[in-house]
Write a structure and sequence with these properties.
22% strand; 2 domains; three-stranded antiparallel β-sheet; four-stranded mixed β-sheet; Ribosomal Protein L9, domain 2; elongated; Ribosomal Protein L9, domain 1
């Protein structure tokens, strides 16, 4: 389907460009979202008559988006999920989850603005882009953890592999300490030997 774009669309074109797109993409996204019009003679003429107004509106919304991006850039949002010891999530984190986490932190982000190619399925820190305007994006960090405490450790630079290795080392140290204590107790008993009552032995000796 041939369309005329009413705003910049990444990897497709700039405002005013006439482009050829798949029918499904046009009907399900571009046309319903008001991002394009069918490239008929009437619509092209209509666009040209309103181009100045559209460009002015685009400039205003871009400035607003840039101000929002300054506040949003570099923010970190914690999302708590259950996961296996390997770090694999029992489920996933999607665009809706990220938008909700941003909302809880006081930022207005819509699900469609969250750019995630595929759902997040691992614990850890994940960089996610937020499309605030066709020409403005912000980068945030999604901290997926099993608990707030684990999220703090991940934010400090530790990975799930680091934490698992530390836990294993601690467990091995405790076992080693336990065996050392048991071994020391056994040696003490051997060194002390049987207790002999010398007074009793003296009384049992025969008298002449």
């Amino acid at each position: 389907m041939e369309l005329i774009l009413l705003e910049r669309i990444a990897k497709l074109g700039q405002m005013g460009d006439v482009v050829q797109v798949r029918d499904g993409y046009a009907r399900n996204y571009l046309l319903p979202q008001g991002k394009a019009l069918r490239a008929t003679r009437e619509n092209i003429a209509r666009f040209e008559s309103q181009r100045a107004q559209l460009e002015a509106r685009n400039l205003e919304t871009r400035k607003e988006a840039e101000a929002a991006a300054e506040r949003l850039n570099g923010q970190s949002f914690v999302i708590i999920r259950s996961a296996a010891e390997s770090g694999a999530l029992y489920g996933s984190v999607n665009a809706r989850d990220v938008a909700e986490a941003a909302g809880e932190a006081g930022f207005s982000v819509e699900r469609r603005q969250v750019l995630i190619e595929r759902p997040i399925k691992e614990l850890g820190l994940h960089e996610v882009l937020i499309q605030l305007h066709p020409e403005v994006t912000a980068s945030v960090t999604v901290n997926v953890a099993r608990s707030p405490e684990e999220a703090e450790l991940q934010a400090s630079g530790q990975t799930i592999q680091d934490m698992r290795a530390e836990a294993e080392e601690a467990a091995e140290f405790e076992i080693s300490e336990l065996f050392d204590d048991l071994g020391g107790a056994g040696r003490d008993e051997e060194d002390s030997g049987p207790i002999v009552d010398t007074d009793s032995q003296a009384e049992e000796q025969p008298r002449f």
